[in-house]
């Protein structure tokens, strides 16, 4: 297929995933804001969120104060914020529009409907929209896109490029959300294991639609080690780092098989997966969760770069 | 049902009688409750928006994703009416192609004194780089859109020809899809010839002109200026229906004797390019050295038979308004037949006598710019105010060679849904004729309708809408 087409499909998926992550971050922030203060409290929580989405500075410049309403506007509706749900939905749909030929009508329909509904939401009076409504709308819109891709797209190379967009972005996003929680929210490690800390961990689980899943998987007590294990190393949890990398490798393998040409991206993903498969939570904590996550995000971005070079620029290999 | 206005041919009514072809539709609209009608109208709009058919008009601002209004009342042709139109359209498409082949080679028609040389060779659309080139099968314009209006039961006129890249065929196809989806019963009650063979006919046409160096099944692509072009939806829609890649200039490059596209598996050879971009943007080395757009070297590959470009560069000379007058002559000259479709009588302001007549009768005439399109640089005399008429008078005096004029035609009307039920509105027709190994025409076309009462301008930029166009099966 055309490299440009593959690139649009890939970015369409990345933006869908990113829209959902921003909505999840909004939810975490809003829920955490309801909790009593720790180390700077409200303001600090939100700053962590903004930092995770890479937009703290932009927010400060534009709005100054971290009022919840401003935050909602910024993270959901602000067209100037490239990570806002609206920007992501628009970019996803723009990418989709360019490659109409590579999409089934259901997939296009899902993308376009999300875009039209977003315009509708934007016109709606804000007092009529609760944060929960916005977040739920986002999950639904993204689920619809993902569902129609899964149910209707041909299992050809385009399908695998879309899925690479999802899995690479997902791995990055899970790592980012974890990093918010662990690195910024907690002023010092002494909070780990306290009752308050636990509530915040639960918020994180909730925002990843993983609260119940966690309970089913681990039963009993919620500990930092168990949650870290769940979000990083659990093979059953669809958004864990290990699952995301495994899925990335799977789609890279499909591509290489289809093209009868192995890629460097496969080797990179394979070695990252091998590392995760052997990792243990204790070792991750020894390294430092933040350090581990930073390293992981770098490796994941490395795979994305190779995908870009190998497939999406169209230069002869 | 009110009696038809005698000044215009009403395609549904003959006096107060409903013509046979429209009987079912008349019952259908009469029995349709008005709330159902608005419901369906809304549904149609939703469908158009959801599939993403929108239309951007250059320089008008506003919503770039505006819809062209869709009127649900179909326009109907009987099998007999269509048979004659079809013959006329195919005949004209053949003559236009013969003309192109001739003016870029022997120029028989000029030597025979049928067309003045300067009108051809000094025409902006005449492409010197194409002189002496013979495209595969000597076909130059592979998709010919012929704009027709009707003024009487058997009276059709050609308004203009489109030999470059006529657009709008996606509306023909989608209007039908939406009608079938919303009113399936209509298609049970009426025997309507299908139009959905267009995409495969287009593929066959393009494949039939594959370059001589192509072996096996040709790799066909559609070349688009990109997503910001107003017809982008159509480009992607056609690519999708034919299962071919939709490429932009940046996806193609020339190496050796061929044109290649950049794919995830490396370069892949391209054999036929259905381009939806202007000549000027095809190859900067050949046409516009200052342009960053286009594929450098493409014309060399084309000349040496490595790739086919559809339509051929320079095909526009056949549809220029200054050439238009001579098309009936082309039919006689190349085909030795009497033209089946007539031209609208046209006054060339470049000719002194014609110009005098035009200036004296501006109130009655439609004045067009020779190189204009889209109804912008146009004067509709009977509808214009004094200031507008004076403005055009000055323009024509300043550069008479830039203008032609035609009598205001009494465009036929077709019933159209309006606030108070149905009312007659003026329409035109653009069928899409395919020219390859064979000349093919799907039974149908794009009917544009002037939605404003009394208006004769059907351009979508000026209050025009579209209708499904039916050809009844025998």
From TrEMBL, chain A:
Domain DUF403 stretches: 1-312
InterPro entries reported in the protein's UniProt record: ATP-dep_Glu-Cys_Ligase-2, DUF403
Pfam families on file: Alpha-E (PF04168)
Domain of life: Bacteria
Annotated protein name in UniProt: DUF403 domain-containing protein
UniProtKB/TrEMBL annotation, chain B:
SUPFAM superfamilies the UniProt entry points to: Glutathione synthetase ATP-binding domain-like (SSF56059)
Pfam families (UniProt xref): CP_ATPgrasp_2
Superkingdom per UniProt: Bacteria
Residue span(s) of domain Circularly permuted ATP-grasp type: 74-450
Name of the protein described by the UniProt record: Circularly permuted ATP-grasp type 2 domain-containing protein
Species of the source: Roseivivax halodurans JCM 10272
């Amino acid at each position: 297929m055309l490299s440009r087409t593959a690139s649009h499909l890939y970015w369409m998926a990345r933006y869908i995933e990113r829209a959902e992550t921003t909505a999840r971050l909004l939810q975490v922030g809003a829920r955490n804001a309801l909790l009593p203060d720790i180390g700077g409290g409200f303001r600090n929580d939100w700053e962590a969120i903004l930092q995770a989405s890479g937009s703290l500075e932009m927010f400060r410049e534009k709005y100054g104060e971290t009022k919840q309403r401003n935050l909602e506007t910024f993270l959901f509706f602000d067209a100037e914020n490239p990570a806002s749900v609206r920007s992501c939905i628009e970019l996803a749909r723009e990418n989709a529009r360019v490659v109409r030929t590579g999409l089934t009508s259901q997939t296009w329909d899902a993308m376009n409907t999300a875009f039209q509904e977003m315009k509708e939401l934007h016109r709606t009076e804000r007092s009529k929209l609760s944060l929960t409504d916005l977040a739920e709308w986002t999950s639904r819109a993204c689920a619809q896109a993902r569902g129609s891709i899964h149910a209707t797209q041909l299992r050809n190379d385009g399908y695998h490029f879309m899925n690479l967009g999802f899995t690479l972005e997902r791995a990055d996003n899970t790592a980012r959300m974890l990093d918010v929680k662990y690195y910024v929210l907690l002023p010092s490690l002494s909070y780990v294991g306290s009752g308050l800390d636990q509530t915040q961990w639960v918020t994180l689980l909730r925002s990843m639609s993983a609260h119940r899943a966690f309970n089913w998987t681990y039963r009993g007590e919620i500990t930092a080690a168990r949650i870290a294990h769940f979000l990083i190393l659990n093979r059953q949890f669809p958004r864990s780092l290990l699952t995301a990398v495994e899925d990335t490798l799977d789609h890279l393998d499909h591509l290489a098989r289809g093209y009868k040409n192995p890629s460097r991206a496969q080797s990179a993903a394979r070695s990252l997966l091998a590392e995760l498969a052997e990792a243990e939570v204790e070792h991750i904590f020894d390294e430092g969760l933040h350090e581990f996550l930073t390293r992981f995000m770098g490796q994941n971005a490395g795979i994305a770069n190779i995908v870009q070079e190998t497939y999406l620029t169209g230069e002869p290999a | 049902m009110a009696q038809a206005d005698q000044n215009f041919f009403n395609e549904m009514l003959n006096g107060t009688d409903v013509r046979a072809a429209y009987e079912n539709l008349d019952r259908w609209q009469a029995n349709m409750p008005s709330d159902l009608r608005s419901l369906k109208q809304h549904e149609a709009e939703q469908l158009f928006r959801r599939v993403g058919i929108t239309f951007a008009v250059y320089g008008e601002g506003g919503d770039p994703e505006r819809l062209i209004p869709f009127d649900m009342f179909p326009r109907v042709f009987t099998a007999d009416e269509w048979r004659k139109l079809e013959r006329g359209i195919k005949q004209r498409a053949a003559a236009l192609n013969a003309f192109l082949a001739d003016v870029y080679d022997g120029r028989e028609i000029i030597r025979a004194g049928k067309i003045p040389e300067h009108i051809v060779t000094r025409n902006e659309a005449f492409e010197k780089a194409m002189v002496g080139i013979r495209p595969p099968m000597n076909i130059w314009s592979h998709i010919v859109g012929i704009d027709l209006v009707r003024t009487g039961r058997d009276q059709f006129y050609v308004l203009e020809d489109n030999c470059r890249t006529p657009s709008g065929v996606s509306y023909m196809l989608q209007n039908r899809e939406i009608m079938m989806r919303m009113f399936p019963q209509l298609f049970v009650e009426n025997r309507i010839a299908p139009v959905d063979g267009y995409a495969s006919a287009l593929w066959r046409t393009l494949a039939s002109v594959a370059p001589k160096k192509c072996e096996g099944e040709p790799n066909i692509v559609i070349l688009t200026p990109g997503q910001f072009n107003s017809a982008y939806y159509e480009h992607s829609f056609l690519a999708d229906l034919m299962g071919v890649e939709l490429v932009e200039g940046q996806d193609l490059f020339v190496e050796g004797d061929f044109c290649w596209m950049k794919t995830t598996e490396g370069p892949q050879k391209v054999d036929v390019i259905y381009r939806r971009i202007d000549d000027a943007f095809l190859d900067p080395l050949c046409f516009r050295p200052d342009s960053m757009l286009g594929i450098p070297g493409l014309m060399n590959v084309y000349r040496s038979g490595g790739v086919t470009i559809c339509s051929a560069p320079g095909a526009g000379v056949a549809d220029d308004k200054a050439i238009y007058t001579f098309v009936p002559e082309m039919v006689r000259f190349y085909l030795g037949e009497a033209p089946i479709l007539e031209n609208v009588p046209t006054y060339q302001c470049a000719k002194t006598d014609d110009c005098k007549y035009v200036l004296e009768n501006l109130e009655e005439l439609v004045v067009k710019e020779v190189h204009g399109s889209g109804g912008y640089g146009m004067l509709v005399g009977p509808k214009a105010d004094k200031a507008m008429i004076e403005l055009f008078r000055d323009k024509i005096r300043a550069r008479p060679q830039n203008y032609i004029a035609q009598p205001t035609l009494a465009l036929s009307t077709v019933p159209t849904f309006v606030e108070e039920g149905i009312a007659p509105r003026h329409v035109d027709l653009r069928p899409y004729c395919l020219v390859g190994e064979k000349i093919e025409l799907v039974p149908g076309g794009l009917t544009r309708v002037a939605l404003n009462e009394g208006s004769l301008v059907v351009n979508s930029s000026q209050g025009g809408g579209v209708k499904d166009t039916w050809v009844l099966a025998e």
